[in-house]
Amino acid sequence: MSPTDREIIDRVTSGDRRAFARLVDRHKDKAMTLALRMLKDREEAEEAVQDAFLRAFNALSRFEWKSSFSTWFYRIVYNVCSTSLSRRGEDLTISLQDEGEAPATELRDSDPTPEMDLELADIARVIREEIDLLPASYSSVVTLFFLQEMSYAEIVEITGMPLGTVKARLFRARAMLKKAILRRTNEKAVVTGVRGIAAAFL
Amino acid sequence: MHLTEKEIQALADQTIDSSRKTELLNHAASCKRCAAELSFERSLAQAIRTTPIHKTSLQFTSKVMGQVDPGFRNSLVFRMFGGVGRLIAMAAVLGVIAYGLTLNVPGTSDASQGPASVLFGEISSYYDSAKEFLTSRSAQVNQTVDQRASGQGMQILAMTFVVLIALGLLDRFVFRHFVRMKM
Q1: Residue B162 is assigned to a structural domain of this protein
Q2: Count of CB contacts below 8 A, A vs B?
């Protein structure tokens, strides 16, 4: 049985520095996904994750288990990435005040009924591409919620955003993804239709 | 009356209050429009959850550990042996391919051998020469250097060097490229 995060951290704090490698192996890929979705640059994302691990290591003796290690660590990753974005002139906190709860729009009968009429592999590819295209403030929340399977409360703790903002960003991000999937489905339908017409005439 | 998008998302994520859950699910069960929306949201959520994650580079842990623990030498050892291991693996694979290509199919003559077979034949003959050269060299260790043997030795060294460079280039530009693509 593999040791828990707590057991590894206990070993590290009692002097076994090399045990930290297991913690790195365990969290590096998910941290990389979060960093890459925020920074949109592979090299920069890897540097950010590396920096986050070093910061975590240096602060490990002060970690008080008020939250899980992963929540604490992803907060570090998020902060490192936010700092990088600020250096680029992109600020995650912009318009936070403007974002309240998500609007409670009721469905209308005139709205088209959504259908996920794409092959499974296409859906995975489209979603990955579309998440990568989302602004950092949205893709980070989507990644934490769906990939890391974190609760709203944990996302609030990691990002420092108010609960309403987290919910609003998640709602809007999903709406963007939904729109993208439907657009791709329509494109596919158009292509299929054109091919059908072409085949009928040839 | 239909459900709101917010309610549908909350149902799909199972973050809805338990007090309202039954009421909303009952509505979705009797309303085709809302049922379709709920089904779409569930599929979308599932698809996002199963999106492949991005991986770090192969040496990432070694890099971090090298900074965490200056005495950590595994990174160097790992990289060295990792690299040699890949070269050996590639050499083995290339060997098997070359062996397969050089197999004499009944009814075919030597003249029908392809360029890979010819190349493999060349490499084999150089290594046969190497074996011969080392045997003869050990017998002549205290004698004057034989000009012919020396020339042959240079050829063998050059061939070894070329093969190693080729494997290195394959590793750098083909193998690692595919590893990165997979990630």
Answers
A1: yes
A2: 127
Query: Can you count the helices (H) and strands (E) in chain B?
Result: 8, 0
At A179-190, the pLDDT tens digits run 888 887 777 665
For B118-174, write each residue's pLDDT tens digit.
Answer: 776 777 777 777 777 777 766 665 555 455 556 666 777 787 788 888 888 877 777
Per-residue pLDDT, B181:
45
- Inform me whether the C-beta atom of residue B37 falls under 8 Å from chain A C-beta atoms: yes
The span from the CA of A108 to the CA of B26, in Å, is 19
B168 and B118 in a single domain? The answer is: yes
What is the extent of the structural domain holding B152? 78-182
Do residue B2 and residue A103 have CB atoms under 8 angstroms apart?
no
Tokens of B13: 């994520």
What is the ipTM for the molecules in this complex? 0.76
The answer to whether residue B11 neighbours chain A at the CB level (below 8 Å) is no
pLDDT at A16 over 70: yes
A63 and B CB contact within 8 Å: no
Please tell me the distance from the alpha carbon of residue A123 to that of residue A26, in angstroms, as a whole number.
27
Give the number of other Cβ atoms within 10 Å of residue A118's Cβ.
18
Interface of B with A in 113-152 (CB under 8 A): none
Q: In the CATH scheme, what is the code of domain A120-201?
A: 1.10.10.10
